[in-house]
Amino acid sequence: MKPERNNVSLSVLEEKAKFIRTETVRLSRIAGAGHYSSTFSCAELLATLYYDQMRLEPGQPQWPERDRFVMSKGHAAIGLYPVLADLGFFDPSELDTYTRLGSSYGDHPDMKKVKGIDFSSGSLGHGLSIGVGMALAARMTQRDYRTHVMLGDGELSEGQIWEAANSAGHFGLQNLVAIVDRNGLSIDGHTEDIMTVEPMEDRFAAFGWEVQRIDGHDLNAVREAFARLPSGRDGRPQVIIADTVKGRGVAHMEMSLDWHVGNLVGEDYDAVMAELEVGLKPFEPESMV
């Protein structure tokens, strides 16, 4: 059985991506700091997954047939919590406790505390292995859910990612979808300066994966990439390499090494919220820092 999708309009997805960015800024103010740029780069991907693609039942977080999602780049959880609240997994007012003492909503997601989180993450490089296990479990239990794993490109330097990629190809896990947020920057600098991750398409293909490469901010392209995914449990695992811009949506954050973690206050906070409300402007590569 092919999972049911929602088929919402592109305008709705645009608004949801904007919502992810503005909520990230709002929650960062509560915490006193936040992972702005890593979350902004995957906003369109998260919006499409949760509002258009994934089969979920917010009233039944442990519904066995739900599609799974692993946020391997766990520091982007600040953008995922508002989505889960918006969908009805929990009361949105709970987000006002973000990172406060005793809150369920920490800097990284905890599956034992937050409804809708399928696995706890934080230490990079582990998510794809978890996804392989979830996809194998679907096969063993004869269930038709799909497992999605959001990877940061920086964590592709971790050896465990490639052990997991090898095993997914070996087991023929067609129900496993890796989504690489290819924004080119990590907290330590440009990914290619630290440890080259290209040619990424060839690397995944060598392990037996079906590869798509898209503009991760083009909602049409993102949705079409998901539409091309095959149904079923047996075949080639799937990877969508999404070329993105770190900090997309706020001009002074785009491809800036200074905003992996930051803190907006006062007039700067207001200015960024106003800029985000306008929506995405054309990306200007010459503004890269």
Account of the 3D structure:
The protein is an alpha/beta fold. 38% of the residues lie in helices and 11% in strands. The chain has ten helices and seven strands. It has helices spanning 10-31, 36-40, 43-53, 77-87, 127-140, 159-171, 191-194, 200-206, 219-227, 266-278, and strands spanning 68-71, 147-152, 176-182, 185-186, 189-190, 210-215, 238-243. The chain has a five-stranded parallel beta sheet with strand order 1-2-3-7-6, sandwiched between helices. Strand 2 (147-152), helix 6 and strand 3 form a beta-alpha-beta unit. The chain is globular.
Write the SSE topology.
Elements: H1 10-31, H2 36-40, H3 43-53, E1 68-71, H4 77-87, H5 127-140, E2 147-152, H6 159-171, E3 176-182, E4 185-186, E5 189-190, H7 191-194, H8 200-206, E6 210-215, H9 219-227, E7 238-243, H10 266-278
Parallel strand pairs: 1-2, 2-3, 3-7, 6-7
Antiparallel strand pairs: 4-5
What is the average of the pLDDT values? 93
Euclidean distance between termini CA atoms: 47 Å
Rg is: 18 Å
Give the spatial strand order of the biggest sheet: 1-2-3-7-6
User: What's the count of strands?
Assistant: 7
Beta-sheet strand percentage? 5-15%
Task: List SSEs in N-to-C order.
Answer: HHHEHHEHEEEHHEHEH
Give the % helix.
Answer: 25-40%
Shape call:
globular
> Structural class per helix/strand content?
alpha/beta
Main sheet specs: 5 strands, parallel
